[in-house]
């Protein structure tokens, strides 16, 4: 019997679609000696919920699920219908997977105790960031953080399981729902991006080992709040304009972050007179993106401290966020930490 070796390069009729998210997770499972498959399954659960939310966002204009829901969340922000839908989808996926003992969500006032004392992980999530942009067809996203619980498996959860600094994350990521849908995540060994292929219903590795340029030409900030900035921030933005950097601000955190990660840039949401503690949430927005940017070679700060070192004191704690290419962030940090006299000079 004649046996021929497989020669895939002989045919030009079919292109390679690449490695799927599921296969990639399995290949990387050996990176976690403390885990026995639960973290891998948890990432799959998040990917499944992301596929469902992707479907909902794609048909928002046809299914009358755009616009406001008519209620406000704990932040005092008006909930959009898709906020509620995305929250339900992720809650169901995380609770039914069996790996999670508790969930912190932007859309919930308190910690969701799943009463699953055998679960090893706590998830903090913003189910749909920037959802008000849905009605005008602008990119939105999901942001998530995963922590290992501190208390012994089998016991009830405590505050120690929830109030962990970002440097305790075992995984973090985001999903970007845009011209294409992408899932980007890290488990502390670099970051990788996967693009969703609708016809196959799979995420495929499209951006392996992503790295943030050390410098960039983009700055992202809401310049409508200029009158409320501290002098150092105003001075930095003036400097950006003098150097003819590009101002790019979408108003969807995930979209702004993703662009700057790929192209090089800085995103700033500083403290203002109205929000002296900042606007973005530490547990389920800043921590996840800070871990991702550091894994990509960038950095994240509140102007004085590394984001990942901040000890949370409340569930929906806010923080200023300056994040992106390392050299750009360090430049802003240096201005903020200047002496009061130097600040006064910079403000002129």
Quickly count the domains. 2
Q: Which value, in Å, is the CA radius of gyration?
A: 21 Å
> Regions with pLDDT < 50 over 5+ consecutive residues?
341-348
> What is the name of the CATH superfamily of the largest domain?
Fructose-1,6-Bisphosphatase, subunit A, domain 1
Q: What summary fits the major beta sheet?
A: 8 strands, mixed
Helix content: 25-40%
- In percent, how much strand structure appears in the residues? 15-25%
Q: Helix tally?
A: 10
CATH architecture of the largest domain: 2-Layer Sandwich
By DSSP, the count of extended strands is 17
Main sheet strand line-up: 4-3-5-6-7-8-9-10
Q: How far is the first residue's CA from the last residue's CA?
A: 86 Å
Please report the first level of CATH classification, the CATH class of the largest domain: Alpha Beta
Outline the structure in words:
With 348 residues, this protein is α+β, with helices and mostly antiparallel strands. It has two domains: 21-207, Fructose-1,6-Bisphosphatase, Chain A, domain 1 (2-Layer Sandwich); 218-347, D-Maltodextrin-Binding Protein, domain 2 (3-Layer(aba) Sandwich), CATH 3.40.190. It is 31% helix and 24% strand. It has ten helices and 17 strands. The protein has helices spanning 21-27, 38-58, 60-63, 81-97, 159-162, 231-242, 253-263, 282-295, 326-336, 340-347; strands spanning 68-72, 78-80, 100-105, 112-113, 121-129, 140-148, 169-177, 181-186, 191-197, 202-207, 218-220, 246-247, 265-269, 280-281, 299-301, 318-319, 321-324. The strands form four sheets. An eight-stranded mixed sheet has the order 4-3-5-6-7-8-9-10, sandwiched between helices. It has a five-stranded mixed sheet with strand order 12-11-13-17-15, sandwiched between helices. Strands 1-2 form a two-stranded antiparallel sheet. Helix 6 (231-242) links the parallel strand 11 and strand 12. Helix 2 (38-58) runs antiparallel to helix 4, helix 6 (231-242) crosses helix 9 and helix 6 crosses helix 10. 45% of the residues are buried. It comes from Algoriphagus confluentis. It is found in: Cytoplasm. Its cofactor is Mg(2+). Mg(2+) 2 binds at residues 126, 129, 285. Pathway: Carbohydrate biosynthesis.
